[in-house]
Amino acid sequence: MIRFYFHPTPNPAKVALFLGEAGLPYEVVPVDTSKGEQHLPAFGAINPNGKVPAIVDTDGPGGKETRVFDSTAILIYLAEKTGKFLGSPEDRPELLSWLLFLASGLGPFSGQAVHFQHAAPDGLDYAVNRYRREAERHYQVLNDHLEGRDFIVGDTYTIADMSAWGWLDRASRVLKGLEDPLAAYPNLKRLFETVDARPAVSRAREVGKDHSFKRVNDEETKRALFPSNYPPAA
C-alpha cells in the first residue's frame, strides 16, 4: 500500500496522475500546507524538507517500509516499482535528462513566477520579470524539443510527460494575464492537451476533493507557506 501525502498543488498532482495511470492502491494523507502541517515533526519524519508530495510504500524493497520524497524521485521510484511509463531502456539517459530539466528548471521557475506575480508585495518588478521570462524560456525549450514529436522522450507516454503536465496545468497562473497561455507554444499545448485528455487525469483531479483544505490567504497561511520571510520565534 502507498500512503500518499498530498496537497492540491502541481507537484502532488503529478504523483496523483501516475497512481491513477498505474492503478496502484493508495491511501491519501492530506497535508494542509496553508495550516503549516508540512512543518509538523510527524511529517518531517517523512520529508525532512517539509514539502509535499511524499509517499510511504509499506511494501518497499525487501518488503521494508520505504519513504520517498520529491515528486521526481517519487515518479522514478513508482515507475521502476511497476515497470510502467519508463520508455525503452535506450531512452533512459534522455528520460533522466528531461525529468531533471523539469525538476530543476521548468517547475521551480514556474513556481517562482507564480509567487512573484500573485503572492509577493507590489514593487518587485525585477523579480517578476526575471521569473516570468525564465518560465517562458523553459516553455520555449520544451516546445522546440517537441517539434515533430508526440511525447517528450521516445515514442511513448512516460513519467516525463506526467511531470510536465503537473505544471502546465497551471500555465494561466505562471503566464498571468494571457487568455490562452500556451498559444505561443503550440507543441507544448498539443502535449498538454494529449495528456489532459487521458482518463487518469480526471481521476487525479478528484484526489483530495473529499478533504476541506484551507483556502484563506491570511497571516497564518503566509507564515506556513513562506516561513523564511519571517524571523524565527524568540
TrEMBL record:
GO terms for molecular function: oxidoreductase activity. Residues 88-216 form the GST C-terminal domain. Residues 1-86 form the GST N-terminal domain. The keyword Isomerase does not apply. Its EC number is 1.8.4.-. Keywords: Oxidoreductase. This is GST-like protein. It comes from Rhizobium binae. The lineage of its organism: Bacteria, Pseudomonadati, Pseudomonadota, Alphaproteobacteria, Hyphomicrobiales.
